[in-house]
Structures are given as structure tokens and as C-alpha cells.
Specification:
- The strands form five sheets. Strands 10, 13, 15, 18, 19 and 22 form a six-stranded antiparallel β-sheet that branches. The chain has a five-stranded mixed β-sheet with strand order 1-3-5-8-9.
- It is built from two helices and 22 strands.
- The chain is elongated and about 85 Å long.
- The two termini are about 40 Å apart.
- Strand 6 (about 90) and strand 7 (about 100) form a beta hairpin.
- With about 280 residues, it is mainly beta.
Amino acid sequence: MGALDLPLIAENQSAAYVTSNDADAILESALCDQIPDHVATDAGVVVTAHQFRQNWHHRITGTPALAFDFVVPSIARPFMVSNDSGQTAGVRTAGGLSVPVLTGETRLLYCDGSAIVPLTDSLSAGAGGGGYQGALLSRSAATTIPLLPDNPSNPGTPIYVYTAIDWDSVAHDTDDFFDGTAGMESRITIPAGVSKVILSGQVTWDYNGTGWRLLRLQKGGGGSYAGQVSQSVKGDSATTQSFVSPVLSVIPGDYFELGVLQDAGVNINLPGSDKTWIGIHVIA
């Protein structure tokens, strides 16, 4: 049937024009129609297979408080997204990397059947000379996030120390954002020619129902900066945290790390899997 589920004319079919007309109508809808409103909430938007096949243009409205996921089916086709929600939409398939669509932006995208490919009609100003620039790193081996150390000057009171996650697997890296040498395994470093970026990421914890899990996107080793991302959730079964940053202004040599901490009172692992990752996407 194909990606758009067009009806096929059978051999020696009578009144074949009916099937042909039906197929033409579906194709016209897929190329020309739009859904005027996907109303986004903090929980995001999930597009049905029927909506995705039948509409070229998807417009997002709503008033989410944070960046959110806009999840489309794993069906191969080009499509367009307009975001009027006031927050960044991370367009992705159920198992793919998010492609950010900023608020007020319209983007032409392509789903290749498993992931979203951003399309552009302009050259990038960054180091790669044009097209997509960015990197995607993950943690394939399990790593231990220690319990918080005790404050020696105030026993019984913990010191809130973030552990920067070291990355050991590179899915792609267009401009050497990741060094990987000793002491640099946790860093995404900005190369020459890049001035605006969006970062996204996800952390999955082993089960422990005690205490809190904190996540912070750190710039230059710590401290605050415009657009800083921080997040806390209560520990629970298979706790997962994810984020998409706003557009961040950067200069060459700036570096970002994904820092985490937990106060369960015991060490907790981040299991080695593709569920703990960080990505960077160059905007300018």
C-alpha cells in the first residue's frame, strides 16, 4: 500500500476510475491539507498515523510551560510544522532524536521511516559550511552516580555536588564538538564559527523510589547563564528526565556538560543504553 496507503487498482478491475479518484483525493490531501491546531501541553503532542498521512502542514498552538515533544509516526514522508505555542517543539519519532522547531518558526522536515531529517534552503553560518551541524553522544556503559557527600563542617548535611556524565559513544559529530580524550569525556565544546545552538538530552536512572533526581545543563563547568536548563523529579520506577534548551548564545571554546545528582542515600546507576544521551544542533 505504501506510506500514504493509496488504494491500488486491481488487474481487470471494473470501474477502475473510482479507485483512481480515491487515490488522487488522498494524494491531494497529503500534499495540500493542514491541521490548523495541534494544541500542545506540557505532556507534548502525539500525531496519529491518519493525521500524519492526510496532512502536509501541522500547526501547533497551546500554552505549554516548557519545551515539549511533537511525536510523529515512523512513516516516510515530507511534512511541515509551524510552531505558535510559545515554547520549543522537539519534533521526533517515538524512538528518534528531536529536531527543534522554535516558537514562531515554520520548518520543512522529512521522516525517513525511523527518524526526522531537517531540511534547509539556506547555508549555515557555522563551521561546517552548510547543512546540518551538530553532534549526538550517548552513554553505552553503565555509570554510577554516587550518594551526596557529607559536609565535614556540618555533619548530617549533604553537599550538593553534580556529577558530569562522561560520554563513550558518538552517533554523529559534524565539527569535532566532542574530544573524548582524558578529562574531556563529558564536554561538548563549541568550535569556531558557531554563535547559536540548541542542546537536548535525556537521562534514565535505575529504579530507586527514594529522594530526588536533579539534572542541570552546565556551561563552562557550572554557574548560571541565560537560558540555563535545570530539572528535578521524584525518584520512581525507571525515572527518565529529558530536556530541550532554548536557543543559547555561545562563543568558540564554550563547553557544555550534563550534570546530575541524586539524594537517595545510596549509589544509583545510569544503565548503559541509548536512553542516556546529549545532542547539540547549530542554529547559527
